[in-house]
Amino acid sequence: MSRRLSIIAVVSVALLATSVVSAVAQTLNWKIVGTSRPTPQWQPWEWFASEVEKRSNDKIKVILVSLPELGFTGFEMVRVMKAGLVDVGDILPTYVAGDVPILEGVDLPGLFPDFDKAVKAHDAFMPVLKKYEDKLGGVVLGMYYWPHQVLWSRKPVRRLDDLKGMKIRVYGTAQTEMLKALGAVPVSIPLAEVYTALEQGSVDGGITGTYTGYALKWYEVSKYQIEMNLGPAIGTLTVSKKTWESLTPELREMLTQLGREFTQKGIEVGRRTTREGIDKSREKGVEYVNPGPQFLAGTRQAVVDVVIPGWVKRAGADAKGVFNQYVAPHAGYTIP
Q: Domains of the chain by range and CATH?
């Protein structure tokens, strides 16, 4: 509790002073918190901030900061937005899955064979995100994509048996369950510590995006990207409830349209960085390994037998219906 209070206090000092409304010009001063600046995924946030000012005819002035600049990991955003300290924020559904596990349904690993299938599924899943907006702290207007997730490995993995006993960095319950089912040893460590762990051999591999691993120079300590159909990860463009309710219908419509355009840019950057992550890593000597249909059929079986039932148990009575309505048409699997 003390840590939560300190977070709120820091944000209050850093941001709340900018939240006043000018009595003379009636200008809204907004705080927008996006992802990390050095990543290509920052680009849609910069575009959004600029367009908000332009399309509002400068009725809204924006201060755009990144999560790392505030010392945030991303897990704090729901609390901060609910407190009214941020107007627009980057909220990752996988980060709040512990509190709202049903939102994890479209991000379970091993569901979609390619990036475009995942995009269609996430688009179809938007009504579920909208239904649980109160849990996210605001109104979801759009999303962006991190690149396709792969297993970065110190050694080649070409058969399912090659995974057995491997210590692999994972994030999230679903990945943990999947890797355990395949005979690997899941390890939960912060992303920033994975390079050293790979270098020292305390882990044999780690799961992250194709471009993310490249940007973190994992090519220096792991020479293989293993395709496991893990899919991309998403973040959402979410306007705080307090801010949304204070807006005129015209500004709401403007932001809704911006959310649609933000999503298109978010799809483009996710698709581009997926490809670039493979190509640029290959230039550094990393081999992209697609083990083939038998391997992928085995990973898929682990998802069907272990991962999906585990998620249904966590997510509760509505999970089966939500999955079958919104996810199954794109995943090619219906929960019986």
A: 2-145+233-275 (3.40.190.170), 149-231+278-331 (3.40.190.170)
